[in-house]
Amino acid sequence: MLSIITSVYNQRAMNELFYSSLCRHTKSDFELIVIDNGSTDGSREYFLSKPNVKLIQNKGNFNYPYCQNIGIEHAKNDILCFFNNDILVTQNWDKYILQALDEDSRLQILSVSTNDHLESKSRLKTLSRKWKRIKYPIQMVFGNSKFSLKLMCKLMYGNLNHFADKRYKTFGLKRIEGYSGSAIIAKKRLMYDIGKWDEQIQSADFDLFNKVKKNSLVNNNICPIQMVLGVYFHHFQRLTVKTKYPPFVNRHTMINLVEKWGNETSELRKDIVG
User: Fold this and answer.
1) What confidence tens digit (pLDDT) does each residue in 226-247 have?
2) Domains delineated in the chain
3) What is the pTM (predicted TM-score) of this model?
4) How many angstroms separate the CA atoms of 149 and 256, rounded?
């Protein structure tokens, strides 16, 4: 029922936690499509050993939207989940997301709440500060090992599923306009109707939001991207910010958001809260 698409470059420990999280908490049948950009730390071999993983090996390091489009071409299911490999999903996430999609035919693409985006700037600021106080000291001592990642999450939430359950009890399937770029879920037909990810733009989530919002303004059959407040994922923000990645193979064709959208972005994004 679900095709989950992610791109990776190394991060073996995080990849193992990500995959384990999906297997524990996804009740629907799913395939995981992994686009590997040349991992050298055993991540490729790890995913090759898993029965529900379709591994695609790129000949070099390509940017995010390029990889997501490869995933779309290989996806066999109608619901596409564009997930970063540095997230942890929570129990019942797919049940709630599918319910939200079923309740409103205009809702063809959505996201979830994370420690990147929440229902208010004040709530986000509080959670972000807590995460920074926890993450950096542990990372300095233990690096990005599986032990340190689990410890970060334990100190952040106590129990991540309990934290997510409390949010669901508070918000249910309530939605606001917005998105967390680390986790976007869309109906496959929408990605063909409006056009797939723009491979020129590395800030691909910004670009996709703009594209969907612009379409929604002229087409009543589509909502802007909505964030479901009662579904929560943890995102290990900027986990490898100091890592030196190989340059993108397709870097010479890339442009920035301003070159594509000019001043239109601020108008399209004016209703985003968190």
Assistant:
1) 999 999 999 998 877 556 778 8
2) 2-268 (3.90.550.10)
3) 0.96
4) 32
